[in-house]
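Renewal narrative, Specific Aim 1. Our central claim is that a sequence can be written position by position from structural information alone. The example that follows is taken directly from our test logs and has not been curated for this report. It begins with the structure tokens describing the chain, in the order in which they were read.
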């Protein structure tokens, strides 16, 4: 079916590209992601957005597009960062390397508060991430806004083509959503986006892809796999849900997982493979290697349990895809390999044996989808938990003793957040083991034990995150309980790093 009046987002490889899709959806319009070479497959879009990207327009392999075809759609076009630089070239301008890479906050100063910058402040913060800048402008180019140094950060070419050098899709651009809203208002009759419509589309796609085959679903108790399992149940396909306990879960989580699935009426099978996982991880410290071992071993254990099942369903979300940068043709830079993007999974994908209905959604959209499926709020609103489990919260080697320390410290931290009403105010919180032993004093004697790190962040999509300014009371009580009740720990630290440059997890 040909898409009509949607917002087509062309992906030039930015880590934030899918955020543009998400922001457009939040504004109530249906958006879909395409590669630049898929320009002829856009159908009849109502608006087009060109994303940012890591390449320079002067690179020999810089992504390009058919400008004549782009123009032929006759709809508003917005170029973001790389997209703006590319448009400037197409209209006869030039792009040159900046004296230094511009990364971080800057000021947006609109020339007028109309059109793209309607209802914006006289000055507002924007987020930059580029190493090139537009230089010469063609005669038909209009400067719409500048930064604090007077450098153009927004251009227009005629009535339909617009460019912005900053990233409006990230929360660090304080009025970025308003900029996108203003752009969308330049289009007419854009298709609406509603989660109920998305649910029906996903159910239809699942039924069509699965058919009469059996699909097996690995569940962990996390939001993603839980919503996936209930979605498969709702689709009425032949499904088995299997819980592989790799021993890297939070304290008593296996019990909680089984209870929650009983509440939802979804039968699950449990496989205790903890001994196997700890054995394979023995002595392994390199982060990517740990992820590969866990991901591949999970698939092995999983497929041993299911036998000859024909399809594997995964709760993969878009941040997993874009950070792994393993999807075919991706222009994005690889951040880390996710457990559901290891070689064995990629091989199964080539064989057409992997089903990933949630792969274009973000965490908050998955939660909304879960609520629409009737999943109770306390399950849907659980903090995210990584597929490799506590292995990515244990830098260095992983063993039972270290994992036990993390489990105990984490349970104390989470209980204090709940007690003080801060669990639902944070997007994700956890304790990790810092692989450094420090000198301390216990019982009037010298101790030489581990340090534990606490991390709590707020985020909308896992692509960016900020640390939570927790009350000192919570940190004090948590630290006191950990130091007095978790053997092997004599120091507690609180992580105040943002993403970027840090990631949310430690590995």
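The sequence written for that structure reads:
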């Amino acid at each position: 079916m040909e898409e009509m009046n949607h917002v087509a987002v062309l992906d030039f490889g930015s880590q934030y590209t899918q955020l543009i899709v998400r922001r457009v959806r939040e504004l109530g319009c249906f958006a879909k992601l395409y590669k630049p070479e898929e320009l002829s497959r856009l159908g009849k879009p109502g608006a087009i957005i060109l994303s940012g990207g890591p390449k320079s327009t002067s690179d020999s392999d810089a992504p390009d597009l058919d400008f004549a075809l782009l123009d032929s759609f006759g709809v508003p076009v917005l170029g973001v960062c790389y997209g703006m630089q590319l448009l400037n070239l197409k209209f006869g301008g030039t792009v040159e390397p900046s004296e230094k890479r511009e990364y971080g906050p800057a000021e947006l100063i609109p020339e007028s508060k109309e059109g793209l910058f309607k209802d914006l402040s006289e000055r507002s913060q924007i987020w930059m991430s580029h190493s090139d800048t537009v230089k010469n402008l063609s005669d038909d180019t209009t400067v719409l806004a500048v930064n604090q140094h007077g450098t153009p950060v927004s251009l227009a070419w005629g009535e339909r083509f617009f460019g912005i050098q900053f990233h409006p899709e990230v929360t660090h651009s304080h009025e970025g959503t308003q900029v996108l809203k203003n752009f969308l208002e330049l289009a007419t009759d854009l298709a609406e986006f509603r989660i109920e419509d998305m649910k029906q589309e996903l159910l239809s796609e699942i039924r069509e892809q699965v058919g009469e085959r059996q699909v097996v679903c690995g569940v962990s108790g996390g939001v993603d796999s839980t919503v996936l399992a209930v979605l498969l149940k709702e689709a009425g396909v032949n499904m088995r849900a299997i819980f592989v306990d790799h021993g890297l879960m939070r304290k008593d989580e296996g019990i909680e997982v089984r209870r929650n699935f009983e509440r939802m009426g979804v039968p699950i099978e449990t496989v205790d493979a903890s001994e196997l996982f700890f054995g394979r991880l023995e002595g392994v410290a390199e982060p990517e290697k740990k992820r590969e071992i866990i991901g591949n071993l999970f698939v092995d254990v999983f497929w041993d349990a299911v036998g000859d099942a024909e399809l594997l369903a995964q709760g993969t979300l878009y941040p997993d895809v874009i950070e792994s940068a393993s999807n075919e043709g991706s222009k994005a830079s690889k951040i880390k390999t996710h457990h559901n993007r290891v070689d064995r999974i990629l091989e199964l994908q080539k064989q057409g044996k992997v089903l990933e209905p949630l792969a274009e959604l973000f965490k908050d959209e998955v939660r909304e989808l879960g609520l629409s499926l009737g999943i109770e709020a306390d399950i849907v609103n659980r903090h995210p938990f990584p597929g490799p489990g506590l292995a990515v919260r244990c830098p260095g080697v992983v063993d039972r003793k270290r994992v036990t320390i993390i489990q105990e410290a984490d349970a104390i931290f989470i209980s204090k957040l709940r007690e003080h009403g801060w669990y639902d105010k944070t997007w994700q919180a956890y304790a990790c083991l810092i692989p450094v032993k420090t000198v301390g004093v216990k019982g009037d004697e010298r101790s030489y034990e581990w340090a534990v790190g606490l991390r709590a962040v707020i985020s909308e999509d896992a692509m960016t995150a900020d640390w939570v300014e927790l009350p000192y009371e919570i940190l004090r009580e948590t630290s006191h309980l950990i130091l007095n009740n978790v053997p092997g720990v004599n120091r507690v630290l609180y992580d105040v790093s943002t993403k970027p440059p840090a990631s949310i997890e430690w590995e």
